[in-house]
Amino acid sequence: MVKLKLDRDRIIEKLDREVSKLGVRIKDADSMKVMENVFDDQTLVALYKLVNKGKLSVIGGSISTGKEANVFYAEDSEGAPVAIKIYRIQSANFNTMNQYLVGDPRFSSVRKSKKEVIFAWTRKEYSNLNRAHDAGIRCPKARYFDRNILLMDFCGENEIPYPQLRHAGIEKGEGQKHYDAIIHDIDRMYNDAGLVHADLSEFNLLFDGSEHIIIDMGQAVTPDHPRAVKFLVRDILNINRFFARLCDIRDEEEIFREIIGEDKLQP
Ligand SMILES: Nc1ncnc2c1ncn2[C@@H]1O[C@H](COP(=O)(O)OP(=O)(O)OP(=O)(O)O)[C@@H](O)[C@H]1O
Ligand SMILES: [Mg+2]
């Protein structure tokens, strides 16, 4: 017990020393404290490696503490804003995560320890974001991952993330074009990126003042996942529910058929 504590203190001290030696600016001492309290030693070492590799030059404040992950503001060596998403090894919901990994052929060999599931999850979010980004979907471009840490482009201004769609204050007159654009993106994600988001809602869409941005893709699956159809229908229903008071929404079955292609529904 005592030894562990000593080792932990040593790691944190080393991290602090290395971070200051490299000239990394800690903009927000509290966020560093959050990191030290929330993450295990190996996560802190992995974070230190990112600093050491020159991937980060500024570590800023905490942006979000979610169910499974914390998000922080940071800057790269050129001063460009970056978001750091760190999955918590302790509190992550291992069973839920495993459901999305099993059945995805890209990750089917992953069925090991809790830690390995979380690392695979991080790798999966990295690969999903880039797949969607390459297909032209507006989402943060993933830059790098290591263990449970994901670096991606920051979506926001002056260190403040764009609001989630639910807080974007979309007016009735504006609803239709945003609804249509989001439905179109669900289609493009399925048909061009080969992905179903699987947790799409007003919580995982940001709004930059004129357009939406899709985030949080750890759980996104390929269309051959056994539950892909169920997830796709749920995504459409969530978007329909949110926009029902803002514009004319389309029948979910019609949207669904259009996305997966009528011919694929024939026996
Ligand atoms: N690339 C980004 N740029 C700016 N802000 C971001 C970015 N990614 C995430 N955020 C902020 O962090 C919040 C949480 O992010 P995200 O939805 O990816 O994680 P989460 O919901 O906590 O994940 P999980 O549910 O898997 O724990 C977002 O609502 C947004 O405010
Ligand atoms: Mg989210």
Automatic annotation (TrEMBL):
InterPro entries, per the entry: Kinase-like_dom_sf (IPR011009), Prot_kinase_dom (IPR000719), RIO-type_Ser/Thr_kinase (IPR051272), RIO_dom (IPR018934), RIO_kinase (IPR000687), RIO_kinase_CS (IPR018935)
Secretion signal, residue range per the UniProt entry: none
Protein keywords: ATP-binding, Kinase, Magnesium, Metal-binding, Nucleotide-binding, Serine/threonine-protein kinase, Transferase
Enzyme Commission number: 2.7.11.1
Alphabetized GO MF terms: ATP binding; metal ion binding; protein serine/threonine kinase activity
Domain Protein kinase, residue spans: 57-267
Reaction(s) catalysed by this chain's protein: L-seryl-[protein] + ATP = O-phospho-L-seryl-[protein] + ADP + H(+); L-threonyl-[protein] + ATP = O-phospho-L-threonyl-[protein] + ADP + H(+)
Family from the record: Belongs to the protein kinase superfamily. RIO-type Ser/Thr kinase family.
PANTHER family linked to this entry: SERINE/THREONINE-PROTEIN KINASE RIO1
Protein name stated in the entry: non-specific serine/threonine protein kinase
Organism listed in the record: Methanoplanus limicola DSM 2279
